Each structure stands twice: as C-alpha cells, then as structure tokens.
Known about the structure:
Pathway: Pigment biosynthesis; melanin biosynthesis
Mean pLDDT: 90
Protein name: 5,6-dihydroxyindole-2-carboxylic acid oxidase
Cofactor: Cu(2+); Zn(2+)
Subcellular location: Melanosome membrane
Membrane topology: Single-pass type I membrane protein
Bound molecules: copper (II) ion
Oligomer: single chain
Strand content: under 5%
Amino acid sequence: MQLSTDEKRAFVNALEQAKRTTHPDLVIATRHYSDIFGPDGNTVEFENITIYNYFVWSHYYSVSKTFLGAGQASFGGVDFSHEGPGFLTWHRYHLLQLEQDMQDMLLDPSFALPYWNFAIGGNTCDICTDDLMGARSSFDMNSLSPNSVFSQWRVICESVEDYDTLGTICNSTETSPIRRNPAGNVNRPMVQRLPEPQDVADCLQVNTFDTPPFYSTSSESFRNTVEGYSAPQGNYDPIVRSLHNLAHLFLNGTGGQTHLSPNDPIFVLLHTFTDAIFDEWLRRHGSDLAVYPEENAPIGHNRGYNMVPFWPPVTNAEMFVTAPENLGYSYEAEWPGTPFTMTEIITIAIVAALVTVALIFAATTCAVRARSHKMEGHQPLLGDQYQRYDDDKGQSVV
Ligand SMILES: [Cu+2]
C-alpha cells in the first residue's frame, strides 16, 4: 500500500467518522420475524446503527445461526458468505456498499478503499502502526496502542451465546475493545506467518473458479484456494489455512473470528486485497458466468441467488464481473511472477538456441565481410561473389 502521510490520515479519519455516523438510510432488525412487532405487538424492533457498525452487522448476520423457534437449538449449518462460490461476490458487494456509504458521508465520490498486500511472508503486521491500523499496545500484547484512534473502538455482535440461547439478534450495542495479537498464536505456529508472495502467484494459476461440492472441501477450486481452505496450488488439505483465512488467523483476536472480524478495521484492507486477487483472476481467466455454479452450491451461493442480507437485493452473478469495466473501480497492484512450467522452459531453451545460432551466423557474416573489406585492397580483381554481397548493402567496392 503506497499511501502518503496525508492519505493515511484521511483514510483513518474517514473510518473513524463512519464508526460514529448513523447510517442515513438503513436500520437493523433486533428481533426475529415472529417478534418483530415487540412484546406489545405494536413496537417495531428496529434500531439505528452507524455506517461502520452496519458493515459489521451485515457480516455477522450472514454467518449467524438460523433461529428455529423458541426452545429449539439454533441451526449453524448455514453461512451465506463463506465456504462457497459466493465468498468472493459477497465480500465484493460488502466492500462496495461500505465504500459508497463513506463516499456519501464524505460528500466525496472519489473516496476509495485502499488495500493491504498481506502476502509478504514473515511475522510482522506492516500496517499495524499508529498512522494506519494501530500499533500494538506496550501494556497489553492483545490490545491496540492508545495512540491509535482504533484503541477507542468498541465491538458489536459479541454476545453470540445470547443470540443462540435467547433467540435475539445482534443489536447496535458496543461492548469490548478490539483485540489483536499479530503472529501471537503460539498454540498454532502455522498461523504465525503471513502468506508468501508465491502463494498469490500460485492461486492465480488455478484455472477453475469453483468445483463440486462448492464448499470448503473443494479441490482445484480458485475460490476455495484464495479463501484459504486449500493449499495455494489448489489441492484441498483439511489442515491447511492459507491466503485470506491465514491473514485473518494471523491477526489472532477480533479479526480472526468470523462473526466479529469486521470490527477490526484491518478486515477492510484484507478483503480489498482478496477482491483484487479475484479481479486479477477474472482478468486472466475470463468472467464468463457459465463458470459460476448455477445450482448445487450451499444456500445463498448459487449464481442467481440474492446475497443475504444486502438491501436492495443483489445477486452473486451481478458481482461476477471485471471491476474496472463493470463496477467502476480498479486496483493498482503488481502481481508476483510465476515460476516457469516445463513447456515454458523448453520453449525458452529453443528460442535461446535459435537466437544463439542467429548471432553466430551474423558474427560469422560480419567477420567474412570485414575480411572482404580488408582483402579488397590487395585483390581488387577478386570474384563477383564478394561484390554482390557488398552490393546488397548498397556499397560500392570499386
Ligand atoms: Cu467474511
């Protein structure tokens, strides 16, 4: 990310403003459908929510358990935004909505969300500085530095137990501070390092957008690979966490828990980069809708389905397009090079051999020609052969 000092400050200030500004258009439901008119049947259970907290809430809602009624255990088998082909299209719209809400808030249609290239390897969070997403507190490994405005942020949607047992829905109440301890999960060494640049290069080479069962167990699926349930080369491996998933888990705190993760604003930058990889894949492999599954994907993930809970309704298909041409934004990104395949190595070897032969031929010819010049003085009556050669070059030897 190449933001100037002023751009960093403007971005942080814009996020802070979004965290404090009530969403001008949308309210959230705080009760399920059966209770939506309140205990007296006449008080609608909706609340105002701030622009940034709405961004958090809509993500929480998309992964929350399904309430089956009083006295029944909630059903956790549905995830409208992860572990399926809609992962990329859902998060793309999620970001677009935040970006547009912030543009409206700032009265600046040119405002754009930046990205964080998280594929830098190592165990350092390079954007965890006080001029960006907040440094680590020197008092508590798991907290943000008091010099960062984000140390003042409080999370929403934390009381999952209540939602599941009482049948309530996350409301706009803010509770604890953001927790973050990059590379600090000592119990899970695999998530103590960020993805490598080569992982991005590898996943972009996975040709098929998604593969049956269109789930987190899909193999040779670009979507499952960039989401991070497969090895970066595409093969499914149940113990692997790579790319997007690895970047989340690396944060080790609020940003590493699916129902809470957008509460840590790093979520925005992590997902814009994931979206940039998605857009590069579309550019390289084409955005023909036929490669996006029309059916048999988990609920909400089929091509023509609306993405829950966005309003107004928008389908996965509408986001399966190249961004610069269809959505009006683009990423300034440089993609890591890929190692050569055997076919490419053979092609390069043949071309190199041909070039060498051509160079030897040219050098020999020049030598002969130089020799001919040298000898002309001594043998002006040499044969036609050399004269014709020199005539071709438009030179006269006589
Ligand atoms: Cu997510």
